């Protein structure tokens, strides 16, 4: 499937015309390809789309004897699987006894249109070549107009009773009389081509219209060069690795359904665990320093920050059963009080809230760090204007901001991912790597927010460390096959 | 233009049915109501060999302005006990009246399809859950109820004696006959249950 268009170019012998979109930068990118998030896709023009699709259409038409119009419809219906079509298609030689009304012998007889039930001279009747059913031009025009109005494209059926024939693109355009309608249909049909073709993706922004091509389609990140949107190549929704498309749909549905339960979790203020003063989070970094008492703590788990940085960082690890606390009554001679068991629903809710809080926390951090990134860019501009270094001198700061956003996004989605990973050593390893990245990122975020006072070498070391851990985490996630969400 | 096309077509369809009714006498008839071409009355006979045999069923037909590019809106005007017809409203569940409508279909072909649906219900695609459930699990009670309804609503010649008795018994208590018929049918001819529905508490 991926190689379809190569085949056609090979057949035609003009490989040199192959869009050179895939070859350049190959070597430079070989190191980038080790990055599990790496994805190569390019924006293509309408002409380039047609170049690829028309080759497939011509090939199928040539081997099946179908018209170009019908071959195109057939390809859309079969998700452009040319090989699959050619494997099952049995060419039939036309049966001489089975003649359509359109055959020359009866051409001049006036005939009745089965839709308006009026009789027309043959010149006003139009037959769909695929099934041979013919109706008057006016009925076709009215019917097709109504179908296009409803938003139909490649899937308009013949008007005949129980006829499953699908009407081809050129046939429909030829019969529509209204030019606005023609344009609407043409656009819809083009979209159908793109959406049914696994190597193409349409920009997720409504009305942007940018088309992307990937030689090896995958559920990876596309950044639109036109509208700056970022989305998943495979499903068109927000980019969501390390979750696959199905898992993230399940997660999004779940958090939408549970929005009320979890809404209080999304509150913007928390109390300082030391002095209990209310603190509003104003930056993306989860390493909080209370203005009043200078207590340092983690915004997510509210634990002491010292335990995050120096010893073992485990704020990301969900503890299924928070038992094991020493029985306070032990040794006092009194019989131990029965510990009330948490209901299954309560346990499920707690597990969900655990992951949701972290998901939401990183989402908010991401939004704040996007603002921070804008500020960094403005700051760099100002410095350059004031002759404080060149763009190259400050490049590291822009890069650090970009990296922070990338890792923060990754962290957010690892919590949706981890929610679905089954308990066990594999999950332990994943959470260990997640914790690694999380602590590195919080340090990085902390440093970037105070970038003027941090030394460049230190920041760059943090960046290398973050990049290394992001790759490690994605590599591990790739090996963990998620169970299908129920 | 659309209204014109719908009107012209309906006129031709009426003529077509009138012509065809000689050979298909008693099976299908179609007439315009009050001379209007957007509201028609169709009549079909219960198919022979089915519980509806001998009944005359009226169909209420509305023609949308987009006809024939949109399907006609058809429901039973005569009450019918059938899995694919609502026992309360007469609404019909039939694919060609919805997604599988094709502009080349005519009211005559649609009425023939509805008649065929009477003869062979599709219980897996029900319009009326109570009736469909009964059709699947208590087939003989379903057949009797369908025949009883065809008798009382569609003028089919034979009634069902047991059901006549139960209805008469409850009518004597002072309930309206049509309410009694409906509630007994909906409650599997259980007099106690029907009473509970008619006079709760």
Automatic annotation (TrEMBL), chain A:
Domain RING-type: from-to ranges: 109-319, 113-158
Cytoplasm recorded as keyword: no
SMART domains referenced in this protein's UniProt entry, alphabetically: IBR
Region of interest called Disordered, as start-end residue ranges on this chain: 1-35
The enzyme's E.C. designation: 2.3.2.31
GO biological process: protein ubiquitination
Annotated GO MF terms: ubiquitin protein ligase activity; zinc ion binding
Enzyme class: transferase
InterPro entries: Ariadne (IPR045840), E3_UB_ligase_RBR (IPR031127), IBR_dom (IPR002867), Rcat_RBR_TRIAD1 (IPR047556), TRIAD_supradom (IPR044066), Znf_RING (IPR001841), Znf_RING/FYVE/PHD (IPR013083), Znf_RING_CS (IPR017907)
Family: Belongs to the RBR family. Ariadne subfamily.
Protein name (Swiss-Prot/TrEMBL): RBR-type E3 ubiquitin transferase
Record lineage: Eukaryota, Metazoa, Ecdysozoa, Tardigrada, Eutardigrada
UniProtKB/TrEMBL annotation, chain B:
Pfam families registered for this protein in UniProt: UQ_con
Assigned keywords, A-Z: ATP-binding, Nucleotide-binding, Transferase, Ubl conjugation pathway
UniProt domain UBC core: residue ranges: 5-155
Name assigned to this protein: Ubiquitin-conjugating enzyme E2 K
Active-site residue list: 93
InterPro entries named in the record: UBA (IPR015940), UBA-like_sf (IPR009060), UBC (IPR000608), UBQ-conjugating_AS (IPR023313), UBQ-conjugating_enzyme/RWD (IPR016135)
GO molecular function: ATP binding; transferase activity
UBA domain ranges (all copies): 162-201
Family per record: Belongs to the ubiquitin-conjugating enzyme family.
CDD domains, A to Z: UBCc_UBE2K
Keyword ATP-binding: yes
Organism from which the protein derives: Hypsibius exemplaris
């Amino acid at each position: 499937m991926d190689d379809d268009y190569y085949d056609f170019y090979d057949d035609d012998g003009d490989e040199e015309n192959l869009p050179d979109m895939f070859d350049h930068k190959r070597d430079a990118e070989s190191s980038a390809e080790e990055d599990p998030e790496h994805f190569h896709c390019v924006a293509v023009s309408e002409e380039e789309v047609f170049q690829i699709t028309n080759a497939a259409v011509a090939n199928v038409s040539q081997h099946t004897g179908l018209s170009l119009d019908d071959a195109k419809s057939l390809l859309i219906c079969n998700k452009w699987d040319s090989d699959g079509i050619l494997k099952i298609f049995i060419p039939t030689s036309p049966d001489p006894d089975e003649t359509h009304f359109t055959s020359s012998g009866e051409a001049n007889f006036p005939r009745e249109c089965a839709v308006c039930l009026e009789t027309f001279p043959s010149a006003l009747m139009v037959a769909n070549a695929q099934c041979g059913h013919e109706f008057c031009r006016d009925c076709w025009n009215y019917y097709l107009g109504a179908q296009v109005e409803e938003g139909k494209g490649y899937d308009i059926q013949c008007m005949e009773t129980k006829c499953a024939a699908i009407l081809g693109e050129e046939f429909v355009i030829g019969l529509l009389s209204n030019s606005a309608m023609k344009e609407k249909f043409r656009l819809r049909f083009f979209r159908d081509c793109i959406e049914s073709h696994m190597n193409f993706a349409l920009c997720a922004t409504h009305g942007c219209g940018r088309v992307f091509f990937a030689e090896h389609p995958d559920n990876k990140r596309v950044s639109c060069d036109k509208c700056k949107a970022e989305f998943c190549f495979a499903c068109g929704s927000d980019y969501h690795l390390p979750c696959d498309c199905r898992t993230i749909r399940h997660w999004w549905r779940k958090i939408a359904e549970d929005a009320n339960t979890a809404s209080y979790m999304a509150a913007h203020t928390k109390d300082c665990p030391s002095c209990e003063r209310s603190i509003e989070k104003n930056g993306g970094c989860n390493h909080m320093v209370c203005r009043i008492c200078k207590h340092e703590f983690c915004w997510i788990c509210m634990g002491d920050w010292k335990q995050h940085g120096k010893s073992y960082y485990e704020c990301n690890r969900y503890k299924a059963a928070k038992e094991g606390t020493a029985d306070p009554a032990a040794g006092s001679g009194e019989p131990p009080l029965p510990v009330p068991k948490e209901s299954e629903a309560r346990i499920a809710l707690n597990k969900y809230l655990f992951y949701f809080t972290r998901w939401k926390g990183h989402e908010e951090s991401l939004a704040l760090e996007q603002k921070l990134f804008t500020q960094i860019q403005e700051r760099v501009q100002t410095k350059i204007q004031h002759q404080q270094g060149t763009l190259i001198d400050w490049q590291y700061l822009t890069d650090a901001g970009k990296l922070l956003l990338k890792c923060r996004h990754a962290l957010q989605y690892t919590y949706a991912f981890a929610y679905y990973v089954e308990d066990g050593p594999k999950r332990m390893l994943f959470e260990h790597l997640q914790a690694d990245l999380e602590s590195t990122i919080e340090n990085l975020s902390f440093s970037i927010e105070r970038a003027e006072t941090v030394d460049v070498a230190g920041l760059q070391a943090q960046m290398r460390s973050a990049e290394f851990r992001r790759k490690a985490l994605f590599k591990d996630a790739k090996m963990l096959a998620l169970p299908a969400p129920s | 233009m659309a209204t014109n096309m719908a009107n012209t077509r309906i006129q031709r369809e009426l003529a077509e049915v009138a012509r065809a009714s000689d050979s298909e006498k008693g099976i299908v008839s179609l007439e315009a109501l009050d001379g209007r071409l957007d509201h028609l009355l169709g009549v079909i006979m219960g198919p022979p060999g089915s519980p509806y045999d001998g009944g005359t069923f009226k169909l209420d037909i509305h023609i949308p302005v987009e006809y024939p590019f949109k399907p006609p809106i058809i429901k039973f005007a005569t009450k019918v006990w059938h899995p694919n017809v609502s026992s309360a409203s007469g609404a019909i569940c039939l694919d060609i009246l919805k997604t599988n409508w094709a502009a080349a279909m005519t009211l005559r072909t649609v009425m023939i399809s509805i008649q065929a649906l009477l003869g062979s219900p599709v219980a897996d695609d029900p319009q009326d859950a109570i009736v469909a459930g009964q059709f699947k699990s208590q087939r003989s009670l379903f057949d009797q109820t369908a025949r009883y309804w065809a008798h009382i609503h569609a003028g089919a010649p034979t009634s069902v004696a047991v059901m006549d008795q139960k209805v008469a018994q409850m009518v004597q208590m002072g309930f309206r006959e049509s309410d009694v018929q409906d509630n007994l049918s909906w409650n599997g001819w259980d007099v106690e249950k029907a009473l509970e529905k008619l006079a709760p508490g």
